[in-house]
């Protein structure tokens, strides 16, 4: 795939970039290693000062970087601004909390004595240069949720961003440089996917994190495993959205629309499978379908637009194939089901797809098991919680889940039984710097954000002192 900015709203190639050659990659790896040797010894106060500087610059740049993201991958510009604001918030959160999250951990005095020590504790140290392989769908946020904790822990970052968001990638490198981080602390590598293996195998790279597709995760995990390097993977998701009979159906249906079409439906944590109790199914289906069909599809630069284009022509083709397969096998589109009508002439070459609600889904259909990366919802009817949970778990993925219920027993059972990295009640899944984020099954392993995220790329060092005091 060429490294280029291609506007998905009209298919126009705006700018191309040359990939780094071997010499360029070598120079950047060497710079990362040199920077780490110096940056790792800085204190939390200095790291926080630099990260707060970056947050302030990002606030100033919000409108410009939002337009860049929209041009490169098609998200509505109002959503792009919100993404930039969220990134600045996360930077400030880690600047404020990193020191306490990485504070030395002390066992009980009894356990220290039982170990034969006069003193013992756990100390967190950085690992080194971390390679981040990141996708295009949240081109700022998915980088920052790695970079903010990694930099506060004393690591340095090497970003291999998706090839269709090169200007966003270069912006991020420039942002950290302008904030005053030492040269080499955060670098964007404009390379294709074929260059990742050699970079990951390089002795100067200590670990890797990847957000992306399951095949990409398998590849990075296998390479890192061969090199015995730590990884964190956040892969696909086909999140269930359970609506039980005690739910506020009107609010559940309104929220469901946003939960499905956020980021033009191209979000791993977007709700995709809507599993509704039969007693409220008809009401929910009607409200949800009306909400989906009334969304404004169009130019993502317009403030009134709810759903912009998919990020690539191939992405739209993949979505069309999933929907067409389901319809051929008996599924029914309550709305949408194809490319939208009535687009402005200048958008006719864009990669748009109409918000769609499908019903009559069966396990024989591809869409039952595969992730739909676009504004397409699968609607299911169930007779009770047992059937709902079984259907929710009938997926290779387990990223997050949403449950609408006012029944405390149902809530406890969902926490116990849903196979997911998160359970969100009476609302939609969202990430927040104070809450760990990640999945199970083929949605990956490890956690980003919160304390788990910053400690993911640290060496938990056991420090043990014998009976004879040091220094006496």
TrEMBL record:
Residues 3-463 form the Aldehyde dehydrogenase domain. It comes from the Bacteria. It holds the Pfam family Aldedh. Belongs to the aldehyde dehydrogenase family. This is NADP-dependent succinic semialdehyde dehydrogenase. Keywords: NADP, Oxidoreductase. Transmembrane segments: none annotated.
């Amino acid at each position: 795939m060429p490294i280029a900015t291609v506007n998905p709203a009209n298919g126009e190639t705006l700018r191309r970039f040359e990939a780094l050659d071997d010499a360029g990659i070598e120079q950047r790896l060497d710079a990362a290693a040199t920077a780490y040797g110096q940056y790792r010894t800085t204190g939390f106060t200095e790291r926080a000062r630099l990260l707060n500087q970056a947050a302030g610059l990002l606030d100033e740049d919000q409108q410009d970087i939002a337009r860049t993201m929209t041009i490169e991958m098609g998200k509505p510009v109002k959503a792009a601004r919100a993404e930039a604001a969220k990134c600045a918030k996360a930077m400030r959160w880690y600047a404020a909390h990193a020191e306490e999250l990485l504070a030395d951990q002390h066992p009980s005095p009894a356990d220290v004595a039982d170990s034969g020590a006069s003193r013992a504790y756990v100390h967190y140290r950085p690992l080194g240069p971390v390679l981040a392989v990141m996708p295009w769908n949240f081109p700022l946020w998915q980088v920052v949720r790695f970079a903010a904790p990694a930099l506060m822990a004393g690591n340095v970052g090497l970003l291999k961003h998706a090839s269709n968001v090169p200007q966003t990638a270069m912006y991020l490198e420039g942002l950290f440089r302008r904030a005053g981080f030492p040269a080499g602390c955060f670098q964007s590598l404009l390379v294709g996917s074929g260059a990742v293996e050699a970079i990951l195998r390089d002795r100067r790279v200590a670990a890797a994190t990847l957000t992306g597709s399951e095949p990409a995760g398998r590849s990075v995990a296998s390479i890192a495993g061969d090199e015995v390097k730590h990884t964190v993977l956040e892969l696909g998701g086909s999140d269930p959205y359970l609506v039980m009979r005690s739910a506020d159906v009107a609010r559940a249906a309104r929220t469901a629309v946003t939960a499905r079409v956020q980021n033009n439906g191209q979000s791993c944590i977007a709700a995709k499978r809507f599993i509704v109790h039969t007693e409220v199914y008809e009401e929910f289906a009607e409200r949800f379908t009306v909400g989906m069909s009334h969304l404004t599809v169009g130019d993502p630069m317009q403030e009134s637009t709810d759903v912009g284009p998919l990020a690539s022509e191939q992405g739209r083709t993949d979505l069309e194939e999933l929907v067409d397969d389901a319809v051929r096998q008996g599924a029914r589109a309550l709305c949408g089901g194809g490319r939208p009508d009535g687009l402005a002439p200048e958008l006719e070459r864009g990669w748009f797809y109409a918000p769609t609600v499908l019903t009559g889904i069966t396990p024989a259909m591809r869409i039952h098991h595969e992730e739909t990366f676009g504004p397409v919802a699968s609607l299911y009817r169930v007779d009770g919680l047992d059937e709902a949970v079984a259907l929710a778990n009938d997926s290779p993925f387990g990223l997050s889940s949403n449950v609408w219920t006012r029944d405390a027993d149902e809530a406890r059972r969902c926490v116990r039984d849903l196979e997911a990295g998160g359970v969100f009640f009476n609302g939609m899944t969202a990430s927040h710097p104070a809450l760990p984020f990640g999945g199970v099954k083929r949605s990956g392993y490890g956690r980003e954000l919160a304390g788990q995220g910053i400690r993911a790329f640290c060496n938990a060092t056991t420090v043990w002192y014998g009976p004879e005091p040091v220094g006496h």
